[in-house]
# Entry
Amino acid sequence: MKIQFVKMLLVLGLLIGLGNVTARAQALSEGTIEADVPHAFIVKDTTLPAGRYTVKRLDDTEPHVLEIRSANGRTAVIFEAENAEANEIPRNPELVFDKVGDQYFLSQIWASDSNIGYQLPKTKAEKRLEGSGTQTEHHSIYAKLSKRMKKAK
# Structure
């Protein structure tokens, strides 16, 4: 009896784990996020000017590799992000920035179709500013989620 119970728990744990991995892989799989950013900001080690940007997965085979691109196409940064999980599905897509001193760092990306989003690792510059005692503020910018059109077969 105990062995059956343990086997059932193991199978249940495996199924939950697989479902969680599948859900995590879905963040931004269906489209792009578009936002008007009113201030310059840093992604990775690149400072981007204020403007309209799109964020999308670079490739469906690597869900943690993202691209942020200016609307005019002149500026693009490819970066890696980690999974983040919200307690509930966000009402609106949004980009979250950490403001440290007078600099903004892109820190999170959320779509409104899932509680799974992305967390960017802190840059050396952000860590240095925080280490010097500079206070961090979080600022959100609402965005628009554009769904990808399915290709006809």
Q: What stands out?
A: DSSP finds two helices and twelve strands in the chain.
